[in-house]
Specification:
By secondary structure, this protein is an alpha+beta fold. 26% of the residues lie in helices and 22% in strands. The protein has seven helices and 14 strands.
Length: 272
Amino acid sequence: MTAPPIEFILCRERGKTQQEIIAMAQRLGDDVRPIEPFGVEVTFDLAQGVSSEDGVRLKELFFRHKLLLFRGQDLTREQQFGVLEHIGPVDRASPLDYVMPDDPVLGTRHLAFHSDMHFAPFPAEGVSLLALDVEEGATYTAFVDATDAYRRLSDEVKQRLEGKRSVRAATPGVYEDELPYDLPEGMHSMEREVVMIHPETGEPIVYVARCSTSRIVGLGREESRDLLHLLYDAIYDERFMLKHWWRNGDLLICDNLALQHARPSIEGVTRR
């Protein structure tokens, strides 16, 4: 358990009592530790194999906590696929290794908060990242929980969002701080509901992102901007942001619908 003074600060920020977070840790078991403000760290050597019983628990933990962290893992690609298949079907079509700063697509610049394949008809429901060779503690990936953001909205704002749709654009929006109301001609885009219902948990998700949402359909320029900024303030509130500082062997499994992730500039980082 975390030292009591830190527990008190974290519980105050999340609206939980110290007794509630201790009870949560006891329910999870000795091999699972809650991470603030969301997610859990699981102590388990995945290379030894995941039984059917363990797989059921893994899936339950994933959809309950949205982010799973496993430290010190040494997995082949096939072993990683095998772990993920306990949660859901895995896209094996184009597995990639990203080596920074040499990657020609992602480069070293910051990547704004986004969810992968948000512009596709069927976005990826989960994302898994495994650190093979990183400069330990030199860089992080940040996460925010858009289901928690919805819960923190006022009833009046939730009512305003009912039935609303937004225009979402494909990359290179991920490099932008904010998209214009009118997208450039030829940029791929599609409409999506502003509040998505999670297909597994039934939770409402504020499904907009500053880097990829241009406007709310049916609203004028200023009204759309003001409402989007209100939603961004809730989603990207730093009090509820998780920053994972990478170590070699870290495996993250993340809910790609409920969470958005971002990366700071890695200029000067020798490898990632």
